[in-house]
Amino acid sequence: MTTFADLGLDPKVLSAVTDAGYEKPTPIQAGAIPPALQGRDVLGIAQTGTGKTAGFVLPMITLLSKGRARARMPRSLVLAPTRELAAQVAENFDTYAKNTKLTKALLIGGVSFKEQDKLIDRGVDVLIATPGRLLDHFERGKLLLTGVQIMVVDEADRMLDMGFIPDIERIFELTPFTRQTLFFSATMAPEIERITSTFLSNPEKIEVARAATTSENIEQGVIMFKASRKDRQAKEKREVLRALIEQEGDACTNAIIFCNRKTEVDVVAKSLVKHGYNAAPIHGDLDQAQRMRTLDGFRDGSLRFLCASDVAARGLDVPSVSHVFNFDVPSHAEDYVHRIGRTGRAGRQGKTFMICVPHDEKYLTAIEALVKNEIPRVENPLGSAAPAPAPEAADEPKSEREKPAPRKRAPRKSAKQEPAAQEAPTPAPDRAPREPQGGQKNNNNNRRSGGGRRDDKVVGMGDHMPAFMTRSFKSPAVD
Ligand code: AMP
User: Fold this and answer.
1) Ligand 1 in reach of 317 Cβ (< 6 A)
2) How many other β-carbons are positioned within 10 Å of the β-carbon of residue 335?
3) Would you give the distance in Å from CA 32 to the centre of its chain?
4) DSSP class of residue 427?
5) What is the dihedral of CA 189, 195, 201, 205, to 10 degrees?
6) CB of 281 closer than 6 angstroms to any ligand 1 atom
7) 318 in ligand 1 pocket by Cβ < 6 Å?
8) How distant, in Å, are the alpha carbons of 132, 241, 292 from that of 287?
9) Pocket lining: 52 vs ligand 1, CB cutoff 6 Å
10) Does the global pTM surpass 0.90?
11) Is 347 left (phi over 0), alpha (psi -120 to 50) or beta?
12) Helix axes 165-174, 190-199, angle to 10 degrees
């Protein structure tokens, strides 16, 4: 078994690693650190959660321990796709370099150029930046990249998704040909292959298993959901989300809720707050200070629910997330892997649920093809029964209440008039829900007491219920 002591790291780095409580290197660390220390280029195919950050930060600190920084000429450069990810690398650097005198600067948007210029002017050993901001500094003539000895590109596949590849190519060209390159990507898309074959020189390639897809400590489930009406889909999905949260109860200590669009992130966060949940949004349109505050709150446990877009949450390291909810099925299958990889980290148990509407079934198929597994179908915690207007049916057995309704529309009532469970949307008659797998049971502990329960049947009418009894009636819209 390889130990950290076997890898050839500086003793100061080793003691910081011991303080961090790590017992042994992860596979990406064991694979990447020795060639990096030999000065070789490294191509790491690994995603977040594998320990890849330490995989490049530890050898960088060791290699940079000799020599000094010169004004405006950083000795090394780490490029990350998002501000949060860059900030996270900076935190890792602080942890592992605490016994050294190495300096760093973090160049990200949302922070004043003046402050950042001051740091660069003094000379830094490690410059951690997002590509756009780095080029802004460069173009203002405040930065020289000709002293870069080590360049790291982190999360290259996300850089590709975000359209940063031309910036990355430009930055590569601004750094010396003799630099050492450590390049990390979760996948090797053709465009990434092209970049690596152009800019890396005979790299040591290390590929680690997709932790998130093979991880047995993440319990996955998908709820196949059809709204009672297309225009009520978003609202009804939010009801399902709340019911899922309630169903998980105290086991859900904190969660990230992923949505595909920034506007949806905002709406879901607002709606959760309105329903008394401790939630906040994070996405690219929010200002940096607010994003940082939200993230800090989530890390320190004062915020329970983080509603996030893929870009904002990519690579975030929050070690103790109990749940991930996919409010939407991601349209890029890869994103599913990244999203669920936020939970079940560092050997902990994690649980993840996704809500899939008919339109998104094609994306679900793509995800299942990618992870080479069927994601277990779990029952909608609101039950699959259509709400019916007969309050006296409230005490019928659960199995009766959960039969699919023989009609398309559910009668509506306002949330104030009735408990959450009764707002269950009506499934279409042709789509009986699949049986839950993996021992998942329907759990109705989200059903609050009070108010009359509706049912899919009107008692006493047998199978010949007149249609008018099932017709919906108007009520004020609710969230
Ligand atoms: P990363 O993939 O770099 O985002 O790291 C994921 C998490 O693993 C972080 O919380 C690290 O602190 C943690 N970690 C990194 N290396 C090790 C290690 N050798 N043993 C245990 N945890 C580690």
Assistant:
1) yes
2) 22
3) 25
4) P
5) -20
6) no
7) no
8) 16, 27, 9
9) yes
10) no
11) left
12) 0
Helix (H) or strand (E) holding 222, with range, is strand 218-224
Task: Give pLDDT, residue 402.
Answer: 32
Distance from first CA to last CA of the chain, Å, rounded? 55
The two tokens of residue 435 are 């049986």
88 lines ligand 1 (CB under 6 A): no
Q: For a substitution probing ligand 1, which of 26, 48, 320 has the most ligand atoms within 8 Å of its CB?
A: 26
Strand partners, 126: 76, 104
Is residue 134 within 8 Å of residue 144, measured between CB atoms?
Answer: no
How many Cα atoms within 13 Å fall on the side-chain side of residue 140?
13
How far, CA to CA in Å, does 144 sit from each of 75, 107, 116, 124, 152? 10, 14, 14, 12, 17
Reduced to 3 states, what is the DSSP secondary structure of residue 5?
A: helix
CA-wise closest residue to 289 among 110, 61, 54, 437: 110
Residue 154 alpha carbon to ligand 1 centre in Å: 15
Taking the centre of ligand 1 as the mean of its atom positions, its distance from the CA of residue 263, in whole angstroms, is 32
Does the C-beta of 54 come closer than 6 Å to ligand 1?
yes
Cβ neighbors of 138 (< 8 A, separation 6 or more) are: 145, 174
Q: Which of 478, 378, 460 is nearest to 422 (CA)?
A: 478
Which atom belonging to ligand 1 lies closest to the Cα atom of 4? 19
Which of these, 137, 184, 158, lies nearest to 31 by C-alpha position? Answer: 184
Ligand 1 atom 15 nearest Cα: 51
Find the range with the poorest average confidence among 70-79, 383-392, 399-408: 399-408
Q: Tell me the pLDDT tens digit for each residue of 317-345.
A: 666 789 999 999 999 887 888 888 778 76
Whether ligand 1 lies within 6 angstroms of the CB of 411 is answered as no
Q: How many angstroms from the chain centroid is the CA of residue 175?
A: 32
Q: Which letter, b or e, does each residue of 166-199 get, where b requires 16 or more Cβ atoms within 10 Å of its Cβ?
A: ebbeebbebbeeebbbbbbbbeebeebeebbeeb
Triad 216, 221, 223: Cα angle to 5°: 175
Is the C-beta atom of 25 inside 6 A of ligand 1?
yes
Tell me what pLDDT residue 405 has.
37
Beta strands 204-207 and 218-224, pairing class: unpaired
